[in-house]
Amino acid sequence: MIARNLTIKQRRTPAPLGTLLDQILTGLGLSHNLGGWKAVVQWPDIVGERMAKISRAIRFEDDTLLVSVPDSVWRQQLALEVEAILEKIHARPGGKAVRKIHFVS
Length: 105
Fold this sequence. Notes:
The protein is of the alpha+beta class.
């Protein structure tokens, strides 16, 4: 076997699964949507604990992140902070796929 003949330094370190998935999706031309779906998954990290308690990113579609909030008061409050939230999303890898955020109650 070839692996037995390699020294420890010569063996390749396995790539993280997330990295491999990113490469596969990029190769298939699907990486644009990946950035938006990452924002869905990473919503609590993006907005912080306080906002994550009252809102939940539920879907990414057509460059828009759909976020559920409990009522119109919170919908208006988060709408006032949408630019700051978008800046945080855009600072993340693939985050520029999100162009708009739509809050629904």
